[in-house]
UniProtKB/TrEMBL annotation:
A GO term from the CC aspect: mitochondrial outer membrane
Protein name according to UniProt: Mitochondrial fission protein ELM1
Listed InterPro entries: Elm1-like (IPR009367)
Organism ancestry: Eukaryota, Viridiplantae, Streptophyta, Embryophyta, Tracheophyta
Family annotation (Pfam families): Mito_fiss_Elm1
Top-level taxon: Eukaryota
Species whose genome carries this gene: Jatropha curcas (Barbados nut)
A Gene Ontology biological process term: mitochondrial fission
Length: 424
């Protein structure tokens, strides 16, 4: 089996942690609560950090649940509490069925205080309830690690810390923009501070900066990463390499994996990029043994259709159509090189943690802090622009991004300063 070139995650104990913390004392964290927002990109970062800390079997997932369906899809810009108040007013006027007529895709919605994902009940995040649980169980189970990510989770996570400051350690992933002292630690990428640079300030009117940028340079509450945290660590990829062995080990080498995301407000594209990518892939196909193409949930149908029409009948190319098991982690384990669209910080962060060649298409279309992210990746030598002139059989290497493990070490260090440790 091919070796998975990834650094090992940190151990559960940080060098220098006092020996006094035995598993039976109150300074040992054995459990975690994740506050999610329903978006995979945010929740996977929380799961990745908890996994790196050795608590992947000892966490509960709560979710900040916004009203859904009907007019609510246009109200997501409101703070959660305001959104719920508006929703309550609408229901009081028009009746309970008004908001459940359908969502943006025309699907019926079912109101509930919980959401069911597989066999897991995801409870709605209630700061008072979680804080009470942390206080009531502290003597028996020790302190509680709270990990949250995304704008909607900020008020919940900060309230938990305010209500139970002696019983919890709160980590907020992605920058909350202000009031960093409401959290024990903030983990955020460097490009979130791009707007404080001279170039960034030229692009944003002064009267908008307080709403979309951090107010001050990073302080001791902040740990900076290059990209996004994720779950694709060494054990996960070794497991995926074994799980996908029968399907992927037999592929002709080199294996080129092409991951296609979807346009965003700061990285816009459409069929023009799809045609450009198609042309470039045709030019490098001679140097590939196999090509595996995957689309994300954000990929426009017009983009996937262009690539499907061009490569659907090519024996060298396999296109995952979304049916069956998602081969994404298997691709990370077995690929020899990647081509990834520039819109996805998460996909790029995962691929760049493998140490394998990563080519990016569409970076020139990124704006604001996402352009800064692309620039940083190229300066570190972890990605190269995809030009269509590459020989995929030629390899190149770089120090892999290790953001998740380094963030875990920072959490352990911060806990040690407080006199706490983690029992993985």
């Amino acid at each position: 089996m091919r070796p998975i070139r990834l650094p090992s995650p940190p151990s559960g104990r940080f060098p220098g942690t006092p020996e006094m913390f035995d598993s039976g004392l109150h300074g040992v964290i054995r459990r975690a609560v994740i506050i999610g927002n329903g978006f995979a990109g945010a929740e996977n970062q929380c799961l990745g950090l908890v996994r790196a800390l050795g608590l992947s079997s000892c966490y509960s997932l709560y979710r900040v649940i916004r009203p859904r369906g009907g007019i609510n899809r246009w109200l997501r810009w409101l703070p959660v509490s305001v959104h719920k108040s508006v929703d309550y007013l609408i229901r009081s006027i028009y009746g309970d069925n008004f908001k459940y007529e359908g969502n943006a895709n025309g699907q019926k919605m079912v109101p509930s205080s919980t959401e069911r994902t597989g066999l897991l009940d995801i409870l709605e995040a209630d700061a008072k309830r979680i804080a009470r649980m942390a206080r009531d169980t502290f003597d028996e189970n020790g302190p509680l690690l709270v990990v949250a990510s995304g704008r909607d989770t900020i008020s919940v996570a900060s309230s938990i810390r305010q209500l139970a400051p002696k019983n919890v350690f709160v980590v907020q992933i992605q920058h909350p923009r202000s009031h960093l002292n409401m959290f024990d630690l903030v983990i955020t990428p460097c490009h979130d501070y791009y707007h404080l640079t001279p170039d960034g300030q030229k692009q944003i009117p002064w009267f908008l900066r307080r709403w979309i940028t951090p107010h001050h340079p990073p302080d001791r509450h902040v740990f900076l990463t290059v990209g996004a945290l994720h779950q694709a660590d060494s054990p996960a990829l070794r497991s995926a390499a074994s799980l996908w062995h029968d399907e992927l080990a037999r592929l002709l080498k080199p294996v080129l994996v092409v991951n296609i995301g979807g346009p965003t407000g700061n990285c816009e594209y459409g069929i023009d990029l799809a045609k450009q990518l198609t042309d470039m892939l045709q030019k490098v196909l001679w140097s590939c043994g196999s090509v595996r193409i995957s689309f994300s949930r954000r990929t426009p149908e017009k983009v996937s259709k262009i690539l499907g029409k061009e490569f659907g009948n090519n024996p060298k190319v396999y296109i995952w159509n979304g049916e069956g098991a998602n081969p994404h982690v298997g691709h990370l384990a077995w690929a020899d090189a990647f081509v990834i669209t520039a819109d996805s910080v998460s996909m790029l962060s995962e691929a760049c943690s493998t140490g394998k060649p990563v080519y990016v298409i569409g970076a020139e279309r990124c704006t604001w802090k996402f352009a800064d992210f692309q620039k940083r990746l190229q300066e570190l030598g972890v990605v190269r622009p995809f030009t269509g002139k590459e020989d995929i059989s030629e390899t190149w290497s770089y120090p892999p991004l290790n953001d998740t493990a380094e963030a875990a070490r920072r959490v352990i260090n911060a806990l040690a300063e407080r006199g706490w440790t983690i029992q993985a």
